[in-house]
Amino acid sequence: MWAAQFYKFKEPRTFVTSGGLGAMGFGLPASIGAQVGRPDKRVVNVAGDGSLRMNIHALETAAFYNIPVIIVLLNNQSLGMVRQWQHLFNEKRYSQTDLNPHLNFAKIATDFGVEGIRVTTKEDFEKAFRKGYGEKRPFMIECIIDCGRYYCIKKKGFMPFLFISKAG
Fold first, then answer.
1. Of 61, 64, 163, 165, which is least surrounded by CB within 10 A?
2. Residues 52, 74, 129, CA angle at the centre, nearest 5°?
3. What H or E segment, with its residue span, contains residue 73?
């Protein structure tokens, strides 16, 4: 959802998404498949830590087959969009959305055989991204962000992944 809203794509057919239909965990395996399908391009997976937890074992696949996908992990120690819905529509009644804040995904990635760097500033991110882009192997940048500061849904009542169509 973040990439869809904020990244300006320059070419058609360069954005792969589940369509926002609640397929948490879609990003990493889909990015591996996209990278295999387009070895002439660099594929970047932008995902939250909740999403990565769903298919973290796919890091091993990327490492084993040396698939040079870049993973930009937005780690807010929560199931971000679910938590945001609870904040906006359920009067801040949070349920099962706060995750273990002690996990270091950059270290976990390294254990799977994927180089991982943890960053906390924009400058560090830019440096890490340049490094990852220059690598010919999988690479993770774990970005530590504030749990309640950044929201994917821009305003109350806006539902980015609900589409209404007439059956025809």
1. 165
2. 105
3. strand 70-75
The residue to which tokens 């990635």 are assigned = 109
- Interatomic CA distance for residues 55 and 3, integer angstroms: 19
- pLDDT profile of the chain (168 residues), mean per 10: 66 73 79 95 86 89 97 75 60 59 88 95 94 96 71 46 36
Cβ-based neighbours of 36, under 8 Å, separated by 6 or more: 67
- Helix (H) / strand (E) element for 142: namely strand 139-144
Rounded-to-5 percentages of helix, strand, coil across the chain: 35, 15, 50
Contact (CB, 8 A) for 153 and 129: no
